[in-house]
Structures are given as structure tokens and as C-alpha cells.
Specification:
alpha+beta; Arc Repressor Mutant, subunit A; Aminopeptidase; 7-stranded mixed beta sheet; 11 helices
Length: about 325
Amino acid sequence: MTEILRPIGVIARALESIANIEFQQYGLTRGQYLYLVRIAEQPGIIQERLGELLKVDRATVTRAVQRLIKTGLIERQSDETNRKIKHLYLTKAGQAIYPIIKAENDYSNQIALAGLTPTEADSLEQLLHKVSHNVAANWDFVKKGNNRHYYNKGDITMPIQPVTFDQLPTLQLISRETFAATFGNENSAEDLAKYLEEAYNTDQLTGELENPNSFFYFIYHDDQVAGYLKLNINDAQTEGAALDALEIERIYIRQSFKRLGLGTQLINHALAVAQQTHKTNVWLGVWEHNTAALSFYKNFGFSQVGEHVFQLGSDAQRDLIMQKTLTL
């Protein structure tokens, strides 16, 4: 897996250390200049919104704001219609310091981009905005009291991990194994063999792994791959569903790992991904005769909203479309 968080962390810590040293002469302690800049950019911002922008908790924002008020750099003003709402503004002293902070930021940005062409710098900015959006969604998800589901094995665990390209043989093996175990007894050997070859051949799975709107995950138990999950968004959805929806296309647990709660972990992970990608509806197709699966999804709040035909070899089968609406 590509590791980007470490270099981003190194950059952030180095620039923060420099700024903390240089801004001491203005009475700004650790990180306070970040709050001052946001207030300068959005005069009248309320404290809650300030915390959302900086991705810090309420207590941390409160302490920082109180320090800045005490040093005379910002002030609170009551809202004209609701005096309980307090807006934040720079004082004259804060306004005098802001251009210095802005100049430091511009200089540090120039240093950081040294050696990059304008095109490379623009591409980097766009990519970092995407990364920031992903992390911000995670921050908001956890802040609301949700848990991120990335492990499942007692106290010392293996995570639910994205499937990588070098794991394609394992994905292919488990895809065929779990599908055959689930539906093999209900279909002819000829139809089953045809479907397994069409759906899980190397070219097909490679294309799905390369699709930026599809996501594969393995779940581990006792250091072994115990099952997998495939999710689709946007135009990767098999029914061409709305842009506010996420599809759970495949969710399978190997026979020897069933009744360990792993399916629940994968469903919760799918719902977490939906929250993180700001999708309000999660849907999937379930074979009408798979009563165990239908009951499982109903327990998670899914209900039938339609149906479609699932072609398995020469057999056209009826799948029920089930959907759950999320509260973001």
C-alpha cells in the first residue's frame, strides 16, 4: 500500500515547528496562528465552525479562542438576533499580525513547491484536496460517535484491508470458492462453471480493481483471508443508481469462518465507507431464495425497493433490491 501519511506528517510538523519559533515574538503560542488566520478569512465565524475547519474538538477550540481573546488578538461579538451565538473577529492588534502570518504561509508554500513545475504543483494541489476530503469525511464520521471498522480478531487483530493488485490470485480463488459454496447446490454445474469463468477471470477482476469507483476489501481472521467485500459508487454501480448511493455488490465469508461475526464487520465497514463518501443510500441485490441473507440484511435496516434479473449461465434468476437510507 502506498504510504503518504508519513511524509505529509513530516511536512506538517516541520512547518509547524518553524512557525511556532517565528511567531513567538508576536505572543502566539503553539498553533494559535491557525485560528487567527481562519478568523481573518471568515470574519464573524462561530466557534463550532472554526473547529470543523481545523478538525479539532470543541474543548481545544475553546482553549485557543480564550487565549487569543486574552492576548487581545480576537474578540467575541453577540449575534444581533440571538445573543447566545457569538461571532469571532480580529481586533486591530490581530489585523496587524495577520499580514505577517499570511506572508509566512506564502513563503513556506514557495519553499515546499521548489523544483515542481506549475503543472505538477496544480496536480499536487488537486490530489491533496482529494486526500483532505477523504480524511475530513472520516473525522466527521468518528466525531458523530461512529466506529471505523478495520479489524476483527480479539485484542490483537488484522484489519479489514483494501485488496491490492498483487492479491488478485487470492481474490480470484476466494471469489470462486465462496460463490460456489453459496449457490453451487442450487444451480447446474454447467451454469455455475460458465458464471465463475465469466465473472472472475483475470481480465475481469483486473478491470474491476482498476476502477476508481470500485473498492475491494479482505477481512482476516487468525492471519487468514476469511472473506471479502466489493463496493461500487457512481458509474461503477451495476444498476446505474443515483450518485448519492453506494452498492454492496459482493459480500462473502468462507465456509470455515462463518458464525464469527465477520459478515457483520463487513456490513458495518460498507456503511462506514458510505458515510465517508457522503452517500445517503446503500443498496444491494439478494437472490429471492437466499432467506438467510434476506433476514441478515433486514436486521441491518435494509428493505426491499425493487427487483432485477441476475443471469447465471442460462438461468435468469430474480434478485430483490434492498436499500438502507443513512443519516449523515
